[in-house]
Each structure stands twice: as C-alpha cells, then as structure tokens.
Design brief:
The protein has 214 residues and is mainly alpha-helical. The protein has 10 helices and no strands. Keywords: DNA-binding.
Length: 214
C-alpha cells in the first residue's frame, strides 16, 4: 500500500495522551525494524502496529523518515545519558580497577541497552544499508571518555597511539553488532559476553605492551 502524501512538518505532542501516542508509534517502529527492516516500513503499517489511525500518525509525523528520525533521537538521548554517567566517574576509578572492570563500566551499559533495543543494532549497522543512525556529537563524547580512560591507564603511550586504541575499542564491537542481527539466537552471548571478553583481552594486551602492571 502506498503511503499518502504527508504534511510538510511534524508536531510535538503537547498533552500526556499525545505523548503516549507518539511513544506507541515509536515502539511500533522499533518492533517493525527488527522484524522487517527499515526499508520495508510504511506509514500504514506503522499505524496498524501502533493501534492508531493513519490520520493520527500523520498528525505527529510528516513521513516515515520523520518517525525514524524521532526513534533515532530517542536512542541518542538514552545513550547520551549513559555517556554522561561515564564522564562523571572519578579518575581514580579508571586507574585502580582491573581491565575487565574498566571494560564492563565502559561498554556493558551500552551493550545491555542494545540488547533490550534490538532496533538500535539494526539502525547502527543496517543490513539494507539505509537509515543508518549517526550522531557525531555523541560519538565525540564517547571517544573523549575512552581517551580519558586510556590516558590514565597508559600514561606512556603517545597521543596518536591512544587515538588509534580509542578507535579500535569503538570499532571492534561493530562486527558483533552485524552478526547479532544475522543470528538472533547468539545475540545476548555476542553483545553481553563476547564483546567485553574480547575488549578486556585487548586492553590487557595494550597495558602489557606499555609496561603497565596492575
């Protein structure tokens, strides 16, 4: 079914009932992304899954892309909260804890969020190559958090080396995100168990290489 022509802009809900309806639409969008993929979404399908009328859907969202954008923004805000909590951790914690505990602090909250919200994984690494979620500002804050941790734990490493390590710590989980989409049965093991194990081994190897002993 072809989506009808959308109005030029979306509306933010002003009342609790409207906010609940928008939340239901975004929840439906998340479910359908996991089941069908973002490319297969239609406004009529979203309305049907959300239990709302097509008119109500268009009241709040101009088109499918605006729904995807709103869902992505909801994820970005949630991840921003997690990142700010990490940035508030005292330096002494990053210095004293074991590599395993540091990695758990850094990535488990994000990985556990990703496990609960499988659509986020699909938006970060879309199998269809479209509607990729991106937030340069959030990524910079995450990179800054990782760089701070590495500066404290690897004081002898050069700035360029630490930057490479930061990029590796962020990039290494991406392959697991892709595999988690392709094999839902292994999703929890990949996201919550194997990624931390691999990154812990990586951080421990870096510390040995730079003569750090804990």
């Amino acid at each position: 079914m072809t989506d009808k022509k959308a109005p030029p802009s979306s509306r933010a809900p002003q009342q609790a009932r409207g906010r609940e309806r928008v939340a239901a639409i975004l929840d439906a969008c998340a479910r359908l992304i996991v089941i069908e993929g973002a490319a297969q979404l239609t406004m009529h399908g979203l309305a049907r899954d959300a239990g709302t009328s097509i008119g109500s859907l268009y009241h709040f969202f101009a088109d499918k892309q605006s729904v995807l954008d709103a869902l992505g923004e909801r994820h970005i805000q949630a991840l921003a909260v997690i990142t700010e909590e990490l940035r508030a951790i005292d330096d002494s914690v990053w210095i004293k804890e074991s590599a395993a505990d540091v990695i758990a602090r850094l990535i488990l909250p994000i990985l556990q969020y990703s496990e609960r919200h499988r659509d986020l994984v699909s938006m970060i690494c879309p199998l269809d190559g479209v509607h990729r979620l991106s937030s340069p500002d959030l990524r910079l804050r995450i990179e800054d958090t990782y760089a701070r941790m590495l500066e404290l734990r690897l004081p002898n490493a050069t700035t360029d080396a630490r930057q490479a390590y930061v990029l590796a710590l962020i990039a290494l989980p991406m392959g697991a995100f892709q595999t988690a989409q392709e094999s839902s049965a292994l999703s929890r093991q990949l996201l919550v168990e194997e990624i931390p194990r691999a990154l812990t081994a990586y951080l421990e190897a870096l510390e040995r290489m730079h003569g750090v002993s804990r």
